[in-house]
Amino acid sequence: MKTIMIVEDEAAIARVLAAYIRKAGFDCLICRNGSQAVESFHSAQPALVILDVLLPGMNGWEVLQHIRRKSACPVIMLTARGDVGDRIMGLNEGADDYITKPFEPDEVIARIHAVLRRPPQSLVSSDQVTYGSFRIDFKSRSVFLNGAALSITPRDLSLLLFLAEHPNQIFNREQLIEKVWGIDYEGSDRAVDLAIKRLRKLLLHWPPEEGEIRTLRGTGYQLYANTSD
């Protein structure tokens, strides 16, 4: 079950949102301030965050910046302000949508479904990335290890490129099938496990301190990449 994180300091609003979100078939986690949201985000691995702008202490913009440094998780900003400037700022900072209070809970659920149907934002801003001895050229759909081009089947390559576009972000099998192979895919979800196994074999000589494809038991897969200088 997908988890929606609500970051809202007004208890009444948080309770109403949580009730509608659970009724829509999602799990729900409520954080009452920005610091709690930042602390809980990586362990909770939410499918989407509803983030109030006006929070005590760390405000919503700061929380959004923290999320965007490491994750493309969808974020819907929530605020009492009707200023168009706030909306533009939120979208420029990487928010996926924006809802102004007061709102209809049914509209929020509709926005959640709409945002989750979109392809996730890429955290990669260039045509090529390099993680030590591993280089990916997204434009030519080519990958290189120690300077040598790797031969990969188209389906496995699509999976690897998707993970590389979202370094250090965790995806479960269902998400990978939907985002990489399409919702019309009719094969077993175990195909993801087999594809990951083949990719690991190809990347066997990629030093783990530079990066690797990791399994997070009970959660999913990620392409861990050491992005430190």
TrEMBL record:
CDD domains: REC_OmpR, trans_reg_C. Keywords: DNA-binding, Phosphoprotein, Transcription, Transcription regulation, Two-component regulatory system. GO terms for biological process: regulation of DNA-templated transcription. The keyword Heme does not apply. Residues 3-116 form the Response regulatory domain. Residues 126-225 bind DNA. Residues 126-225 form the OmpR/PhoB-type domain. One of its GO terms (molecular function) is transcription cis-regulatory region binding. One of its GO terms (cellular component) is cytosol. It holds the Pfam family Response_reg. The modification 4-aspartylphosphate is found at D52. It comes from the Bacteria. This is Response regulator transcription factor.
